[in-house]
Structure of Trimethylamine monooxygenase:
Amino acid sequence: MINKRKTKKKRVGIIGAGPSGLAQLRAFEAAKHAGLEVPEVVCFEKQSNWGGMWNYSWRTGVGKYGEPIHGSMYKYLWSNGPKECLEFSDYSFDEHFKKPISSYPPRPVLFDYIQGRIKKNKIRDYIRFDTTARWVNYNDETEKFEVVFDDLKIDKTYTEEFDYLVVASGHFSTPNMPYFKGIEQFPGQVMHAHDFRGADPYKDQDILIIGSSYSAEDIGVQCHKHGAKSVTLSYRSNPIGVNWPESIKEVPLLTHFKDDIAYFKDGTSERFDAVIMCTGYQHKFPFLPDEFRLKTKNNLYPDHLYKGVFFNNLPKLIYLGMQDQYYTFNMFDAQAWLARDYMMDKFEMPSRRERRVDIDRWLEANDKLEDSFDHVDFQGAYIKDLLKLSDYPDFNVDEVGVMFKEWLKDKDDNILTYRDKTFKSVVTGTMAETHHTEWMDELDDSKERYLYQEESEEALEEVVGKQPV
Amino acid sequence: MINKRKTKKKRVGIIGAGPSGLAQLRAFEAAKHAGLEVPEVVCFEKQSNWGGMWNYSWRTGVGKYGEPIHGSMYKYLWSNGPKECLEFSDYSFDEHFKKPISSYPPRPVLFDYIQGRIKKNKIRDYIRFDTTARWVNYNDETEKFEVVFDDLKIDKTYTEEFDYLVVASGHFSTPNMPYFKGIEQFPGQVMHAHDFRGADPYKDQDILIIGSSYSAEDIGVQCHKHGAKSVTLSYRSNPIGVNWPESIKEVPLLTHFKDDIAYFKDGTSERFDAVIMCTGYQHKFPFLPDEFRLKTKNNLYPDHLYKGVFFNNLPKLIYLGMQDQYYTFNMFDAQAWLARDYMMDKFEMPSRRERRVDIDRWLEANDKLEDSFDHVDFQGAYIKDLLKLSDYPDFNVDEVGVMFKEWLKDKDDNILTYRDKTFKSVVTGTMAETHHTEWMDELDDSKERYLYQEESEEALEEVVGKQPV
């Protein structure tokens, strides 16, 4: 009897146990706690631990089992937006840390927060780690996804069937790296931001960063903070344009290299020790037949996704977190809750044509956006649209939008001190603490150091094993 | 009529257009030139050009289309064995270069040589570039391989059927990278040899190399040649043990790091600027179901391959070049010629049990080998076994073995000058030229510089654009 019931259950496959995949697991867990019968859910994660990007790896290139490394994060990475803008509305920072913390925590602290919610809910059992999806076949007759998995640890492949497939494999993992004439002869290190693991090797060096993205901005500032002699950012269309410190500057696009000299569009040239390409990422889904692949550039509303998640040609194929992002964890949650309701037959899917009309409406609005403030408002409107459709705990999206705009202004004002500012949680009303050390003076990004409460200099020294800065 | 004949033709799929895949194409082309009817052959190559390893890429991590980078070669890579030991017996160095050259050419010169034979035979038309194999299904009913390919350039997947599948995708592409305690906190660059692209960034630095392989030996020497302050090689079991110059030394295995200090098994410790892991490669076939994967460590006679090529459980699945290698191009040829004959029904496959007995005989012999000289003899015997079975032009395998032993002694004597030695071709009888510049003084690895014939210092200066060394 139990067996029969079990086999009748719908099956959901989730690819990836990063913030998006974990949001999906959490969404089902919330329904289960509410007494609802949920489908059988299995999550497959290529890495040995959850957290996606937030699961730092010292490795670059490929991992232990020869799969491309997922993580693009680096040592000394601190949140580049206020934590109040990404707070889970069902698990606050206060609940996790039991005390107010600053608005811009380092990676290990945010990773700890992400894990808190799912540890509490025993979500680990749903995840098969060290397992990568090799190939997906959608069977038109059975209307099921047949997915070939590769259990990397034991070098074993197997196939499983799912009624729904949730692709939560991220889109900041596969570097986009253009060619520049002469780069093959550049004698120094050339790498993509994806392979950047910390600024230490660039001490006293002249660094060329190509790009004007968040990566370019943050890696540039990190290199400056950790002792690079100079940082030059080369932009294609527009400079980042904040108030840079003296040793950071922006120049137009690189045209070519001759040995270790880089030449730029404005006719200038300069010698560099190393090149870091912050030239973005590709949406890449090698395990999917191309007709099911989301083919898009990084933007706020990728085409072909109804409500930003349901693949319009086959809504049982669900993509999470594929948007360019202001809102992050809370947006993934809002998406996952809606996706869950659809998979539990609690959200009625409109017709394909209706979906198309809805998508087009968002695409048109997206086309009209002019500046960053518009982008924030647009993504806020998208999230409000999602929140209407599920029971994910409501949060004040507009107030978060105000914080994003504040943050944008703070960065413009001073790129080196914006992380010293504090914001107020829309979930708990708690005002963030000012951190014990100004960001530019804080060279240790460990959780222990971050959460340390000042009592005496000696205590801190004991905790972190080095002279406090 | 023609169509009908065409559809009746057997189809051969070759994965990879490196030296092994190209040898397979060349083998079929030779049969075609001899007037035989050959199967329909298609070769699929992930990269945009042929040559496998020899097709140098400045990229590391993933390529233009987000696939793992194949190449492990670097700037200033020179052959680390005499070219006379890898000469094609159907296309000599004399035929290609029209004059004697030295015994240890740089990579671009050997790449040029590899291409010469296939350009002459218009082999390019058989190859679909920028195309990777995603997944192979062997259909027991049709007895065909159904292979899903991904045309990376146009982001399109498609399936084709083959009677035979030749896996020539190499096994020096997927890094094996062990973890050492504390490595995640090492502040300098940490990379696998696969991602090493040249010694320049290590000028005046103290470099730690982990491993005692060819990569360790050669990257160590390259770093020394190009100005590293010191090179330390850490070995697991045995040191390389050649006469190192003063600034290169070998130490026992690394136990752990503490910041930038490495600790070794013998209790010593030292500070380093960068770590290069020359810790070998994995045989990795992500596109194959695990029951068809060759699962082996790098060794001279991987189990499960009859005559070193036919997968014993399914001989229509053919692996080329999967052995650890003294002999290279000429061994791939001997393998490809035999594989061709089998695919053209000209080589009768013995029973599975007979094949097993043959494999076991080789495995037993392999187990008894004691030193490098034994290894050379063993691989020589294997190649002679292959040569008996096909019409690949015979060559003096024993004489090549003698050269390998000479080479091993030369390296022992002086690791910095062994590349200045010369050998005599077993194909043409030609004695190699002494190169115009001693290897340690030659910092330019271009083909132009290499093939330059000294007339005047000024002429050379003109050719290579810099002061001759």
Summary: Chain A touches chain B through 50 residues (CB under 8 Å). The domain at 11-173+281-411 of chain A is CATH 3.50.50.60 (FAD/NAD(P)-binding domain).
